[in-house]
What we know:
Layout: E1 6-9, H1 13-24, E2 27-32, E3 50-57, E4 60-66, E5 80-84, H2 87-98, E6 102-108, E7 116-120, E8 126-131, H3 138-150
Parallel strand pairs: 1-4, 5-8
Antiparallel strand pairs: 2-3, 3-4, 6-7, 7-8
Amino acid sequence: MKLQPYLNFDGRCAEAFRFYQTLLGGQLEMMTHGESPAASQVPAEWKDAILHATLVVGDAVLMGCDAPPTWYQAPKGSYVSITVETPADAERIYDALVEGGAVHMPMQETFWSPRFGMVADRFGVPWMVNCEASPQSPRQAQKNASDLASSK
Length: 152
């Protein structure tokens, strides 16, 4: 079984997926409505809209499309979560995603991660950026949680 996020956009799917590929790397494939087998049945204003986009980064797959205006709803109540190995990668990705977007939680150290932050990118997609934590003892994890709570 595979669980794969599928994002809907209000006409900016191609722009968003090109940005994600530049930021994350990977292999990008997109098909417009005008390139599909049903192209002759598509209204002219939808010929360039993305019917399906797929970005494959390692074992991860992110998919999306341009949703018809009557179907589109801004993302709400969920996040695309990305986990990276280094704090520098977490900072780089977070900084790129927040440009033109909105901070939901500033990038910071948490009791589970040396770097974690939450943001909605300029396309309205909510992201959680997490850096894998170095293994730590339960006592160190408890101290980090206590330090985090006392700093608020």
